[in-house]
Amino acid sequence: MADERKRFYKGSGIAKHREWRGLKDTFYDYLQWAENLGILVQFAAKSPVRIVKGLFEYRWFGGYIGALHMVDKCTAGLRGPALRTAHIHMHAIMKGTTGMLADSMIGDRRFGQTKAADKFVMLEQTMCPEIVAGFPKLKALPLEVLQGLLGTYMDQNLAPFYMDIMESVGLPADSCRLSANAAGVAINDDYPEVGACLVTNNMPCDSSTMNSQLIERRIKIPTTVAGIPMRWEDESTDRYALAQMKEVIKFIEDSTGEKFDEKAFFKVMKQHNKEVRNEFEVWEYAKTPYTAFGNVISPLFHAFYFTFSGGSMPYIDKAAKKALKVAEKAYKNKIVSFDKARHRMITWGGPGCYFVDFNSWAYNCWGVLVPAQMDMFSGNVIISEDDIDEALLGIAHNYERGVMRRHLTGGYQHLLEVWDEAERFNCDMVLVYDDITCKGAMGLAGVVNDQAKDKNKHLVWVQNDMFDHRTISRNEMRRQFSEYMTAVMQEEPLDASLVDFDDYEGW
Known about the structure:
Number of strands: 8
Number of helices: 19
Radius of gyration: 22 Å
Helix content: 40-55%
Shape: globular
Structural class: alpha/beta
Number of domains: 1
C-alpha cells in the first residue's frame, strides 16, 4: 500500500520533493511548474515597486506566495491527459489572477496618485464582469475575491485573522464566512484604494447584503447596488431585472465619463458564449470513463471564467479549446486517466475553501473521482449577440444563476437538482458540504436525506466552516468522509497514510 505522507514534512502539507509520476509525466509536470513560475515572474515585472509595497501593505497578499504549492496539491495523483488538461486550465487561471492582482497594485492610490486608478470598475464578489463589457476603455476588477476566496485556497491561516477582526467590532460570529472575511478586510482597511466606482448587489444572501453596506462605508468611491431578483425563474421579474442592468450602465457612465458601446459589448458577448459552449463540451467528456476532466482544477476553471472573464479574457477560450483537444484524443483512444477510481461522486453545497484539494485527496486516498460539482452549473447562460435588451436580460439571468445563488438561495428545487446531475455524470455517490454558517441550505437537510433513500445514491455529509479551519479542520473533514467510506461503502483506503494526518499548521 502506498505511503504518500512520507513525502511531506510532519504537521504540514509541505512536500519535501516533487511527486514522481513516471518519467514522461514527471518531466511534463516540471515544465509546467516552470511555466507557472514564469507567469509569477511576469506578474512581478509589471510593476515591481508597487507589488513589493503591496506585499508589505496588505496581509492577504502574502497568501499568494503559496500559489505554486496550491497547484501541486490540486494536481496530486494526476497522470496522462488529466494532468495535461489540469495544467492547461491552471495556466489560464494563473495568468488571469496575476493580471488582476497587478492591476490592483498599479491602480492603488495608497502608493501614489495614478490615472490608472480611474480605469477600473470594482465589482462585488458575485457581480460578474459582463456588465462592464460595453466600456472598452475600462476594466472590471473584483473587490473581494482576490482578498478572500483565492487567498484562502492558498493559505488556510489567512481568513481567520480577518474574521476575528470582524467579530471584535461586534458583528455576529455566526454570519456567512465569505461575508465575514470580506467585512474583516474592509474594517482593517485592507482593500486597495483603486477604481472609479463600485457595483455591489443583493446576492446571494442577507449576510452578503449587510456586508455590502459595510464595505460601501469603508470604500471612498461612488457605489451603487444592483438589485437582482431572487425569484429568478419568474418572468414577471424580468422587466425589473432589465431595468437594474440599465441603471448600472448609467451609473458607470456617470461615474467614469465613458459611454456604453454596443459594438464592443456584443464582441465580448461572443467570447462569453464561446466560454459557455466550451463548458458544455467538457461535460460530455466528464460523463464518460475516459474523461480527462475531474477532481479540482476543471471546476476551478469554470468558476474562474464565470467570475472574472465573461468573455473579456480571450486566452480563456484558447486554453479551453487546447484542453478539449487533449480530452478528445484521450476519449478516442479510450485512455482511462483516473485509473484508481472505484466510485464517482458529485459534490454539492458550500465547500471548505481552506481544503481546496479535498477532491484530490478523496481520489488518492479512497479512489473516489469527482467529475462534477455544484459550481460548474452556475451561470452558463448563452447571451444574445445582436439584441441589446435581450443581452442585458441574459446578463441578469447569468447573475441570478450565480455561484451559491442558484442552488442555495434560488429555491429549494434547485438544490435538489443534485440528483439529476448525479445521474447525468454517472455518479453513485453524492457529497453535500454542510457549511455550518450557511443559512440558505440549513432547512433542506431532511429533504435531501429523504430523497437519497429513493434515488439509490450513497449520500455523505461533510461539515466545514468554509473559511475557518479552526472550527472544523481539514483533518476533521477527512475523518468524516473516511468513516463513511469504511462503515457504509465497506472500502479500504488506497493509501492508509492519507486517512489521518496533521496538517493544521500547514498552508
